[in-house]
Design a protein that fits this description.
Length: 380
Amino acid sequence: MGLKKLLEQREAKQKEMKQLLEVAETEERALQKEETEKFDKLEAEIRAIDASIQAIYKQRELEEDAPKEKEEKKEEETQEERDYKDFDAFIRNEVETRDATTLNKGDNGAIIPSTIANKIIDKVVDMCPIYHDAERYNVKGTLTIPYYDETSGKIAMDYAEEGTDGESGSGSFKNISLTGFLARAITEISKSLINNSQFDVTNFIINKMAQAIAVFLEKEAIHGTDNKIDGLKGITQIVTAAAATAVTADEIIDLQEAIPDQYQANAYFIMNKKTRTAIRKLKDGQGNYLLNKDATSRWGYTLFGKDVYTSAQVDEMAAGKTAIYYGDMKGLAVKVSEDINIEVLRETKARQHMIEVVGFVECDAKVQNAEMIACLKMKA
């Protein structure tokens, strides 16, 4: 019997079992003796069909010309395992860097294990929602991103009368440039831990490096640094609160409405946890809280139907500070080079019985679409 026929029989028998249960549930009773016997018989028949289906799959697997693909997959997995093994051995100083190792030599003797570098970047994406949701670029050097600006003028359509002139208008093409600002993350590891064969040195470094990079990127994305990363400093849609240490529901609505409807679908709020606490106490005219817990939301809270993300990097509500950001983070362009240079320093902390692992990355971030993001600034 063919696979298709077996699957059809299985589906039909499963449907019969479901109908037996539904009838008993509708009549609010247990299965009768005849129904139970029929149910057990159908279950046994389904298990027999499953065994036949598995046999067909195994036969096809043996017949297919798959050994080459399996061997390639096995080789890829082995390469990743070798990367981890060699890097672990290098950290433990059990082997010297050699031409045969899976780790490549970089400038100044730096070690660049691509597998580990990619793992670090993947974890940074998971740890930092702003970086996760931003428009990410993984390239070296300067990246120029063009955009169309209609703030000073735009193409307009109007009714026309024959023989009369019309007014022309157009926007203009501009661009932003993302360069590469060098930043580093340093992880200190106790030699006592390294000497413990059960301690997973490689994953410890991956997690610590990713955490440090994620915190740095989130801070720079939000605040930026003069003459370095701009981050969200390029926001042009700014709502100013009437007070220096409190916000109102109307001001939050103004902030939300600053974003055009076409960019609202993926927009969310970003604020400090203390700001979220203050907003949780705000109520509407009917006494309902504006900010509510929502198990289905991304971070457990919603405000005016939008998710709320809290970050320790955002300023609290204080005079002149930017307390809330709102919008679609695709309006922020972030460039991080995936070529992370990792270097092991054994002597700098030798007296403290520790070693240092230093990772260097190139990164930059700028607002690439000012319409997609707005912020609420407290009164000066």
